[in-house]
Amino acid sequence: MIENILEFFKNLPSKKCTECGETIEEQHECYGNKCDKCLGLLDM
User: Out of the domains of life, which is the source (predicted)?
Assistant: First the structure.
């Protein structure tokens, strides 16, 4: 059963930022939905 759970999380699609649509480089099961740039954490 644990294999099925691991496969589920490994096969989740990449998360996309809700503002700009770019892929978010983090764990897919994280609660965040904006990239660092849209959160103002990166210098432009």
Answer: Bacteria
Are the CB atoms for 19 and 27 separated by under 8 Å?
Answer: no
CB 13: neighbour CB atoms within 10 A? Answer: 7
Rg (Cα) of the chain, in Å, rounded? 13
d(CA 9, CA 6): 5
Domain limits for position 43: 1-44
* CB 36, CB 23: distance < 8 Å: no
Report the share of the chain in percent with pLDDT over 70.
Answer: 82
8-36 average pLDDT score = 84
Q: Per the structure, how many domains does the chain have? A: 1
